[in-house]
Amino acid sequence: MEERNYYFFPQQTARQVAPLVEKMRKTIEKTATKTTKKTIRVTVSCGISCKEGPGQSIIDVIHAADKALYKAKESGRNQVKMGKTTVSAPKKK
After folding, report:
1. Residue 63 DSSP one-character state
2. pTM of the entire predicted model
3. What CA–CA distance (Å, rounded) separates 36 from 1?
4. Which of 10, 41, 77, 78 is most buried, most CB within 10 Å of its CB?
């Protein structure tokens, strides 16, 4: 089962957060966990997005980050991709 966690960095742009997330990804990649039978290594793919204007909801930002995550996985995994948010269409009454 795939687990997704969402983290928020208030007052930060995706470009400001990307180096931090990349450092985290590299740390995870280099970390080995030894068991009695073998050594386990894992990798992580990440999607980053940010709110770019007042017309965007947090859901828009999460959807853009989720799309970026899937782009990272489709591009070979173990990488960080940035997504671009779009404004949701207004809800019809």
Report:
1. H
2. 0.76
3. 25
4. 78
